[in-house]
Amino acid sequence: MDKFLIKGPCKIKGNVYVSGSKNAALPILASTLLFDQTVKIKNLPRVKDIETMLNLLKSLGSIIKLSKNKKSVIITKSKNKKVFASYSLVKTMRAGILVLGPLIAKYHKAITSLPGGCLIGARPVNYHLSTLKRLGMKYQIRKGYIHANSKGKLKGTKIKFSNISVGATENSIIAACLAKGKTILKNCAIEPEIKDLTKFLSSAGAKIKWTGKRTVEIEGINSLNSASYSVMSDRIEAGTFCIAACITRGNIVIKNIDPKVIQTELNLLKKMGAKIKKSKNEIYIKGPKKLKSLNNIETKEYPNFPTDLQAQLMVLLCRSDGRSTITENIFENRFMHVAELRRLGAKISVKENKAIIEGGTSFQGAELMSSDLRASVALVLAAMVAYGKSTINRIYHLDRGYEKIENKLRKVGVNIKRIS
Ligand code: UD1
């Protein structure tokens, strides 16, 4: 199993280039199951989850032609379509459930593995199932699989999500594209990745209109046209680099990111003392000598502060000048990095879903264990400013969502080595 060896403390300086967004690419790739025509998807991040999704599409009969640098893919429907999404592929990546909507909309039949829970929470798929049911899908759960079918085309209807869910919004939008008549979805998640998905589908002829802040209307059509689309950049990766600049008191130019998609995060970092300059597709950020603490940070749906940057922000707050608090509202078990950060010297206490973080910590290097994707990168940030050597084990979690992060960090001055 690969691990990282990091020698700190270090200060970062230079340019980093943000990769394509994993969370935008996954639903876009799943939605290619709707197409009869060939589709080209560009700006893919070279991360494990994308490889898993492409393998899943292959297992469903799509012909996958990856470019040499693996950043773009041409996907063509084969004559040999299948509707069975196996446990072995869906268990490692919960986004596997995103093939259910397109399969049922296009082939009126699907057998899809239930993804199961994961370390950060139970993460059920009841919202996905209940909205697809409202569109006409019938299903039974047997031996860990969703056995679903519909009598011909799905039928458009009016649905209000009881809770905001990124994945359920995506699955429903994708399915509604080929439904009969109009679907109105209310109380949708409006993460930029969802807007990227609707932009892609619209570019292929789907009739999708955002008519309110959280309302989208989809007029079903018979088939989509061929399309070529470049996936948006990864706002979580960009946010992670911003935090890296602040924690090391360094300064970097983050390239290939629209600053608008991380406005909330940039405002918080500014409050902490960071100097920030933005242009259309770039952010210059300089960490302050003294970081100010933050009170009452809460993770919430976009446009609020994202749960996917919670662990990274917590590391930064450990280095601030006072006490801060973070409340995690999205996932029930997303403080697993706390125990590992304590091993580096952090003073953090947790009461239910609220973490109380004491500032002024000087981290000391240690051997660490990654628990999930975002927790792993938080440990990397801490190790970058810890005195001495840190070893971070089980970085396969990190490889699921960050493209060659060690190369990007080494280029800006971090002493980091992958040991295979
Ligand atoms: C997506 C992102 C993930 C991010 C999360 C929240 C992808 C591939 N993943 O995950 O990185 O952390 O949004 O921004 O884009 N829930 C239910 N029933 C459901 C669906 C969700 O109870 O059917 C709950 C979840 O357990 C969670 C909350 O709703 O507590 C939000 O989850 P959701 O927005 O669906 O997250 P994902 O789509 O799984």
Q: Quickly count the domains.
A: 2
Q: Give me the side-by-side strand order of the main sheet.
A: 22-23-1-24
- CATH topology title of the largest domain: UDP-n-acetylglucosamine1-carboxyvinyl-transferase, Chain
**Helix segment count?**
14
Q: What percentage of the residues does DSSP assign to strands (E)?
A: 25-35%
In terms of per-residue confidence, which ranges show pLDDT below 50 for 5 or more consecutive residues? Answer: none
Shape: globular
Look at the structure and give the mean pLDDT: 96
Instruction: Give the total of beta strands.
Output: 24
- Oligomer status: single chain
Q: Which radius of gyration do the C-alpha atoms yield?
A: 22 Å
CATH class (first level) name of the largest domain: Alpha Beta
Which small-molecule ligands are present, each listed once? uridine-diphosphate-N-acetylglucosamine
Q: What CATH architecture of the largest domain do you see? A: Alpha-beta prism
Helix-strand makeup class: alpha/beta
Largest sheet report: 4 strands, mixed
Please give a structural write-up.
With 420 residues, this protein is an alpha/beta fold. The protein has 14 helices and 24 strands. The strands form 6 sheets. Strands 22-23-1-24 form a 4-stranded mixed sheet. α12 links the parallel β22 and β23. The radius of gyration is 22 Å and the shape is globular. The model has no long low-confidence stretch (mean pLDDT 96). The site of uridine-diphosphate-N-acetylglucosamine has 23 residues, from α1, α5 and α6.
